[in-house]
Design a protein that fits this description.
Layout (H helix, E strand, L loop, with lengths): L3 E6 L5 H10 L4 E7 L3 H10 L4 E2 L2 H6 L5 E4 L3 H13 L3 E4 L7 H14 L3 E3 L7 H11 L6 E9 L19 H18 L2 E9 L4 E3 L9 E3 L5 E8 L4 E7 L10 E5 L2 E5 L10 E4 L6 E2 L13 H12 L7 H20 L3 E2 L21
Parallel strand pairs: 1-2, 1-4, 2-3, 4-5, 5-6, 7-12
Antiparallel strand pairs: 7-13, 8-11, 8-17, 9-10, 11-12, 13-14, 14-15, 15-16
Helix pairs in contact: 4-5, 5-9, 7-9
């Protein structure tokens, strides 16, 4: 099997699992190079993966053996780095969110279409066994026609553990743009696109104090809403709610629940790949655990760029694609816009539900 050359740009916290899976799990890709603004981060990765070479972004863009660039820069770097990759004639997979603004998102997807390359974006967790099992349950009619959904991501922010938490409280951060992509991508993968949004937002704590070791005691001025609730009208007719917050000390709520005409479905945490789906069908007294029907239930981050490689080879759409990522970006902005404007926001964007994953895949395979 021909392996597609991949480079990783950004060797920070999240990069470890990408290196592991792209180097050791998915057999259709080969990580050839990595880059970071901090040389010590690159050096640490080369100690773990000596077959990977250090490179600058310019060297990566000029290397004909590299076809896909995994862009793990901070959110502010997603658009400029990805656009350079596309202009170099390579496909790109961004960490979430796709970019910061709708304008950047439209430009990125349009440029990729013009160049004939692919845009992918995290999260790719919806391709894991947990959410794919839920997808099969819905498609097979276990809960009837979906009527509604609810999603919750509630915590008290990242300043107690993250070494550099400032960007979570700046434009491009906040709970909706940080964690909303996991929940919204899962909801769109399960229920299809959203057509109308309303929402309310607030900043509960205008200043945050960092208590993680590296920057202990430093203050952060909060620029982005930290408690966000949206109402989502799906094109299918289902109605959903989502609350994301960095202002909550504790809660007893599900991650995602979907309600149908013949039952209810509890969806595992969309920040992971596995978990235990549960159903409570019409007339049942108790919830029932559902065994996973699909693989990749462990942490399989990197499955998205590996799927780009498989899709290019198989001449098919990839799943964690630019249209899906842009639609999720549009929804997140629309929730904030609806709160600012005191009105419903009709979405201009839409997308197809990404294709379900095949059952019975061997580890490392995608088709």
């Amino acid at each position: 099997m021909k392996k597609t050359g991949v480079a990783i740009v950004g060797c920070g916290n999240i990069s470890g699992i990408y290196f592991k899976n792209l180097c050791e799990v998915f057999n259709n890709v080969e990580v050839k190079a990595c880059a970071d603004l901090e040389a010590e981060r690159v050096a640490a990765k080369l100690e773990e993966y000596p077959e990977v070479k250090a490179a600058t972004l310019e060297e990566i863009l000029a290397d004909p053996e590299i076809e896909i660039v995994v862009n793990l820069t901070t959110p502010q770097g997603h658009a400029p780095v990805a656009m350079q990759v596309i202009e170099a004639g390579k496909s790109v997979h961004n960490e979430k969110p796709l970019v910061l603004t709708r304008e950047e998102g439209k430009a990125l997807v349009s440029a990729a279409d013009a160049k004939g390359v692919r845009v992918g974006c995290a999260p790719d967790t919806f391709m894991g066994g947990g959410i794919q099992t839920c997808r099969k349950l819905i498609d097979d009619g276990w809960i009837g026609d979906p009527v509604g959904a609810q999603a919750f991501m509630l915590c008290h922010g990242h300043e107690s553990w993250h070494p550099d938490p400032e960007f979570y409280y700046k434009v491009g951060g906040g709970p909706m743009f940080d964690m909303g992509p996991y929940y919204l991508t899962a909801l769109v993968a399960l229920l299809g696109p959203v057509k109308r949004v309303s929402g309310s937002t607030r900043i509960s704590f205008p200043e945050r104090t960092i208590t993680s070791a590296k920057k202990f005691g430093e203050k952060v001025d909060v620029e982005i809403p930290t408690h966000v609730t949206g109402i989502l009208d799906f094109a299918s007719g289902a109605i959903g709610t989502i609350t994301t917050s960095f202002d909550v000390w504790g809660a007893n709520v599900p991650c995602i629940e979907i309600f149908g005409t013949e039952g209810s479905l509890s969806v595992p945490d969309p920040n992971g790949f596995g978990g235990v789906p549960k159903v409570k069908r019409m007339g049942a007294k108790e919830w029932s655990d559902v065994p996973l029907t699909h693989g990749y239930a462990e942490n399989a981050r990197g499955i998205g760029p590996a799927d780009i490689a498989a899709a290019i080879a198989g001449n098919r759409p990839h799943r964690a694609n630019g249209a899906l990522a842009y639609h999720v970006l549009d929804i997140m902005h629309a929730v904030h816009d609806a709160s600012d404007q005191g009105a419903h926001v009709m979405l201009e964007s839409s997308c197809e539900r990404p294709a379900a994953m095949p059952m019975g895949l061997l580890k490392g395979m995608l088709d």
